[in-house]
């Protein structure tokens, strides 16, 4: 199937800061592509490059077969992360205004119903809650019934019920053939909505695949957390990997906690074996919690690797600078002595 949104080796720098480091991606019609990554990873820059609001330093991009600046704006919609429409217009007036920018727009009343605000059409934008305002903003991107929809953190500030309304709307748009590019920090949102997920770190696409494939490859094994004061040595004879969890994740220094033990790679039917082990050895425990790995574990693993690599590179640069300064000092001293 032909790609509707595609990028090839996109690069963009702002001074010495590399925002995109050769990003390539192809997204098909009707696909929901979730873009995740730490703050500053390059997600918004990539969206801007694909929508024609930022010109990359090199590389190419095409949307609906055309370079982004030449894409038919009637077929494209973008919800930026920061979007502040006029406060002193009602929700209906706002959607009517944006509908007026297109030749063949949808009925604003219908759009308000889609985002769950059918009863708020006569309310001034400034009088709406933060979550309702964000839903109006989502609605503003739908008035032209776009073929391609870019959503940058669309559900930020929306309550759980409203978030599910937006999720169902995005799913129905995809089912109808709309291609959706979605950036989010909500791993549950990405895991539910995205057909495929790309993780950006330091401007590079370090992973790209379905949520299931990414979890299988990077998520690790299941975790059975046992609330106990027992030490790991008490589990030496258990036939599963055992570890003592740390109180932080990522590249920072970590210290073990003292109130739990994690048993890895245990399936639900095997939990009984672990319980038998505890009771046979009279190991006191106050609770058990079994969890499967998810997209959050993938995110933490890959983002931590990127952070560690960045820290190591900085350390090498500092070490190289120190060595250079030392050699320069030695040469200066030798010259003064001569």
TrEMBL record:
Q: What is this protein called?
A: ABC transporter ATP-binding protein
Give the InterPro entries listed for this entry: AAA+_ATPase, ABC_transporter-like_ATP-bd, ABC_transporter-like_CS, ABC_transporter_ATP-binding, P-loop_NTPase
Family that this chain belongs to: Belongs to the ABC transporter superfamily.
The answer on whether this UniProt entry bears the keyword Nucleotide-binding reads yes
Question: What range(s) does the ABC transporter domain occupy?
Answer: 5-227
One of its Pfam families is ABC_tran
Q: Where is the composition biased (Basic and acidic residues)?
A: 307-318
User: To which species is this protein native?
Assistant: Natrialba swarupiae
List the residue ranges of the region (Disordered).
242-263, 306-338
Citing just one GO molecular function, the answer is: ATP hydrolysis activity
* Keywords assigned by UniProt, alphabetized: ATP-binding, Nucleotide-binding, Transport
SUPFAM superfamilies cross-referenced by the UniProt entry:
P-loop containing nucleoside triphosphate hydrolases
Spell out the Gene3D superfamilies in the cross-references. Answer: P-loop containing nucleotide triphosphate hydrolases
